[in-house]
Amino acid sequence: MRPRPTWIALTVIDEDGRGFPRLAFTLTTPGGEDRSIRLDDASRWRADDVRERGTCFLRVGAAIPEPAPDAPVLATAGDDDPWLEAESGGNVALVTERAHTVVVVRARTEIVILDEDGRADIDEWCEVMCGQRRHVRRTDAHGMVTIGHPRAVRTIDVRFPLLSADAVALERSGPLATEGAHS
Questions:
Q1: Most confident of 19-23, 29-33, 62-66, 91-95
Q2: Angle (nearest 5°) at CA 70 between 92 and 27
Q3: Is the pLDDT of residue 48 over 50?
Q4: CATH of domain 6-104
Q5: Residue (of 112, 131, 91) closest to 171 by Cα position
Q6: The pLDDT value given to residue 183
Q7: Do residues 9 and 100 lie in contact, with contact meaning Cβ atoms separated by under 8 Å?
Q8: How far is CA 17 from CA 39, 74, 88, 117, in A?
Q9: ∠79-10-128 over CA atoms, to 5°?
Q10: Under DSSP, is residue 48 helix (H, G, I), strand (E, B) or coil?
Q11: What percent of the chain has pLDDT over 90?
Q12: Distances from the Cα of 61 to the Cαs of 35, 102, 132, 163, 170, in angstroms?
């Protein structure tokens, strides 16, 4: 007996909520089939005929165009909205029987945590507020946390819940990713 087909849906926006109408992508289904998909005018796509349940992979091209400056905001990614960050040239894992919001991230901030001797502080908890969105991450093998966020964010608040406040010295080594992005 053959399993019943399943579905998957997605919306693709940039970090400011602007869509990519009519943009084409490649989706690999759980069964390994590559599908060429094209977003509609609202930057959405849906399939109701995926043969197998499981994980699909959306290939994000290396040259995704910038949405037009006057493009309407189609969606926003608030604090309670789960969204998947997609980098140019990468793959995003999507699960069947769900509607996904994929955010093509171009604005990001990197935070590096070093100990008192200047060595990377590995596996340290870091809470970052970018506008209204809260990110909780652990530092990687280089003591780094990378946060994708809307370009319109003007302030980024960082907290280290497991470190005492007097042990933390924040130094800014460069401008925020958003500085200079909008006039």
A1: 29-33
A2: 20
A3: yes
A4: 2.60.40
A5: 112
A6: 34
A7: yes
A8: 15, 6, 17, 41
A9: 25
A10: strand
A11: 23
A12: 14, 13, 29, 40, 36
> Which of 35, 152, 179, 39 is CA-nearest to residue 101?
39
Tokens of 12: 């693709």
Token pair for residue 120?
Answer: 């990377």
Q: What is the distance between the alpha carbons of residues 43 and 33, in angstroms, rounded to a whole number?
A: 22
Length of the chain: 183
Domain coordinates in residue numbering, the chain:
6-104, 108-167
Of 16-25, 28-37, 74-83, which one has max mean pLDDT? 28-37
Rounded Cα–Cα distance for residues 140 and 172 (Å): 19
pLDDT digits (tens, 9 = 90+) for 104-113: 776 677 888 8
